[in-house]
Amino acid sequence: MYAIVRAGGRQEKVSVGDVLTIDKVQGNGNAGDTVELAPVLLVDGSTVTTDAETLSRAVVRAKVMAAVKGPKIIIQKYKNKTGYKKRQGHRQPLTKVKITAIDA
Question: Global pTM?
């Protein structure tokens, strides 16, 4: 059994035991907490569930493992002949989670 879940701004294919990195979880983002993800599609063998009413009752539970940071992204601005240059870095906050249960 696997599910397609909405995690942050993306959709991820998950099954029980998978470890994935998603956008930062607001609220309970401490290690050991449980998070519920909204399923978009459920597949159980040959049965595919896409009905919104059935999916509203379904839940995918995940355990927060750690808060991590994404890769460093360098932002550079430069204007020719004026001596203006600016350099800035960014690391996106992420959350590493482990899928513990898919309840249909």
Answer: 0.82
Reading the block at residue 35, the tokens are 């998070």
- pLDDT, tens digit (0-9, with 9 covering 90-100), for 35-59: 999 999 999 888 898 888 889 999 9
How far is residue 27's CA from residue 48's CA, in Å, rounded to a whole number? 32
Supply angle C-alpha 94, 98, 68, rounded to 5. Answer: 20
Tokens (6 digits) for 57: 């009752």
What the block records as the tokens of 37 is 């993800």
37 strand-pairing partners: 60
Give Cβ neighbours of residue 75 (< 8 Å, ≥ 6 apart): 87, 88, 89, 90
Q: Which residues contact 80 (CB under 8 A, 6 or more apart)?
A: none
